[in-house]
Amino acid sequence: MKIILLDSIRSMQNVWAIFRNADWSWFEKIILTWFTPTPPRNEILKTALWAENSVIWEYYENPLEIINQLKKEWYKIYSVELTENSIDYREFFWKKQDKICLIMWNEVSWVSQKLLEISDKILMIPMMWKKNSLNVSVAAWIVMYAFV
Question: Which CATH number does the domain housing residue 82 bear?
Fold first, then answer.
């Protein structure tokens, strides 16, 4: 099973775009945490195109709670973040049978240190020019595509 965890993402449009990405890339579940908006909302219809109905979602206030549970269930936890220990997502290989949870971040405060510490790997998307980050829904799509 492939899961994506959205940690405190503020923008409804980004969340709904990730729902649509998850539907396309066969990520079966989205975990929403802290203040990430949850369905149902009329504002999502245009962006998500009803993907909120085809992708299972759950809400947890504290992401560590569910991540610890997933680790007990043998999930591999992969955060997407730029750190000294990050691995270029293009050079990272995983076993197709692995159960994975991909952690995406709040664009203001990034992935929390506690989530990074519990992650099995930290993946990064290399930046080509001046900016050092991408919109979270774009970054999610890039890495989700790699898992396809």
Answer: 3.40.1280.10
